[in-house]
Amino acid sequence: MKHLATLFILFYSINAFAQIETLNERNFRNIFIENYQELSKPPLKNYFVILDNTIKTSFTIDNPFFIGAIEEIGKQNKINQRQSLDTLFNRSFKYLRQNSIWVSSPKVLEKDKDFFQVYNTEICPCLTSSVKKSDKLEIMVDAQKNCFSKLLFDTTMVNKIKAKGGTKTLNDISKLQPYFAMFFYENCDILNYKFNETLNNIAVEQYSNEVSKNKIKDVENLIKYYNSNKLDTLKIMFPNYLKFKIEFDNLIELTKKKDVNFRYFYTGKFNGTERNIILTVIDKNRPIGDFTFINSSNTFNTNVSSLYYKKRKIPKDGVIEIREVTVRPE
Q1: Which of the residues 6, 100, 280, 288 has an alpha carbon 20 to 30 A from that of 218?
Q2: Kind of pairing, strands 260-266 and 275-283?
């Protein structure tokens, strides 16, 4: 028993450590809830859109607390940025579900909770038996329609709805539709899971796109700094730039050519050791080579360690496929 008690205490301590909330995470959560509160003010139209917009306004690198929370969670738990993002997402939406779903509509819940519950008592078990966690969201949407259709043919349930609905008209019930979704999201596990799965993918996609654009913008600035002789500023992001003066000079010369254009790609992996920014040189609509900026930073900051140029081989038919590469965080 003594050994079991020791193991339990050790397990509890490790688990508690993993759940420690950082200052940036707390600040992020406050902004997250504030955004949700503002977006969920009555009248509501589509609850999923509210959650989607909460993601877009909170899980953005323009929010310094979001960046700080991702980095702190990663360091604390020794996990990569994708895992840190998932952790922040899960904690934030768990908190929302447990504490703040009705933050903008407490009177609606107080007035119609029993009415919502009558529906949930029937709809949630129907959804649970019809939808697996591995199913696509479209299957959940179709299942909802089928479950509501079944409900209309259940005389007992219809009588319960009428009893709880009191004097509500069809128009009244129609206005409550977004709140039904809110109530189901709070109280029906399978719907909550499928909503969160889709929302998490939205957060990851936004994160990936924003980081890619940010890295590309940094490289664009590096080139401008070199070209305008702002070398002290350049050195902050590219300390060893002098070792690659030939590549820089070659690049600057190419920017002066009339028929030459450039296309940027960010092909780094967020959990990798290098995050590359590639600048493809296009001469008269044909890619002729690539400048690769090796970004060795494990954070949101760009820290270029080297620069390489590689000419492309032109196929005999002269046809070259140009594909934009977007690597999602892993």
Answers
A1: 288
A2: antiparallel
Say if residues 266 and 272 touch (Cβ distance below 8 Å). Answer: no
Angle at 220 between CA 214 and CA 226, to 5 degrees: 135
CA atoms of 325 and 298, how far apart (whole Å): 20
For residue 136, give the 3-state DSSP assignment.
coil
pLDDT for 265? 85
Domain of 146, in residue numbers:
105-187
Task: Answer yes or no: pTM beyond 0.90.
Answer: no
Asked whether residue 318 is assigned to any structural domain, the reply reads no
Strand 286-295 to 275-283 pairing:
antiparallel
- Residue 200 inside a domain? The answer is no
C-alpha–C-alpha distance, residues 142 and 127, integer Å: 10
Are the CB atoms for 231 and 243 separated by under 8 Å?
Answer: no
Strand, coil or helix: 285: coil
Please give the pLDDT value at position 298: 65
Give CA–CA dist 49/57, Å, rounded: 12
Local structure of residue 312 (DSSP, 8 states): P
The SS3 of residue 94 is helix
Domain match, 1 and 94 both:
yes
Q: Which of 41, 84, 59, 51 is nearest to 191 (CA)?
A: 51
Sequence length of the chain is: 330
- Residue 155 domain-assigned? yes
**Is 325 within a domain?**
no
Contact partners, residue 236, CB within 8 Å, separation at least 6 = none
What is the spatial distance between Cα 191 and Cα 169, in angstroms, rounded to a whole number? 27
Who contacts 285 (Cβ-Cβ below 8 Å, separation ≥6)?
A: none
Rounded to the nearest 5°, which phi and psi values hold at 295?
-100, 115
Q: Which residues contact 20 (CB under 8 A, 6 or more apart)?
A: 76
102, 113 contact by CB (below 8 A): no
Q: Which two tokens stand for residue 67?
A: 């960046």
Beta bridge partners of 184: none
